[in-house]
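HOLO CASE FILE
Compound: zinc ion
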Amino acid sequence: MSQKQPIPILMYHAVESTERPDKYKHFYVTTKELARQVKELKSRGYTAISLDQLVAGLAGGPLPEKPVVLTFDDGYQNVLTNAHPIFEAAGWPYTIYLVSERIGGRNEWVEPEGYEATPLLTASEIATLAASPLVTLGAHTATHPKLDQLSPEAAHDELIRSKAQLEDRLQRPVPHFCYPYGHFNEAVVELVREAGYQTATTTQHGRVNATGEDLLRLPRVSIYHVPPFSLTYGPGALNFRWRVESRKDKRRRESS
Ligand SMILES: [Zn+2]
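Model generated. Tokens follow.
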């Protein structure tokens, strides 16, 4: 029996063709960084799997030797233009979480905090992605609220509305969900379950255990822009390797 290693789910946001001012570093990686990371993962023996494959694998189905799951929050337009070609060339599956009532808009929810908004995927771009066998489209609510700060009724509504809207658009089940801002609590997890989602990803740092993992509180590994020769983070490539393979698991400390 081979001992099963914990599985990293990588969390990305936008994929920019050029660097942005420093204050945006947690919102993106560059196209170059992503290409280098995919190459690095391949050379270290990783194989990307979809969320459906992860669910089947955790239920006892077959998994590759070193699986990795790639996820992109919010549905930025530049994921299609900059990341999709990289995954097509690699033949690797990945997931994009969409905000169902912001399709064709911008991530204006960052504006109150002093950030400029970035364009989100349009309806026709989503149709293009939906036609690719590599792409899983998941739900990220209807309007990107902090679910734990809404009334139970309003949170329930966000969860079922986004699922119904995406299923209607895609004409397929949408069983995968991602908590906006990583905000959730016991009651929100129950609402996610009631809405019929099979998995939900958080922003809590850690890798997924091969057994006994709660599918509605999946931890992830946040990947963001690190300049190639950052003094704070060390060289970008080393930082990436450290983040993906670190055994540090902060889940217990971060949950309330
Ligand atoms: Zn988000």
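CASE NOTES: The CA atoms of residues 17 and 31 lie 5 Å apart. The longest strand covers residues 199-205.
CLOSED: yes
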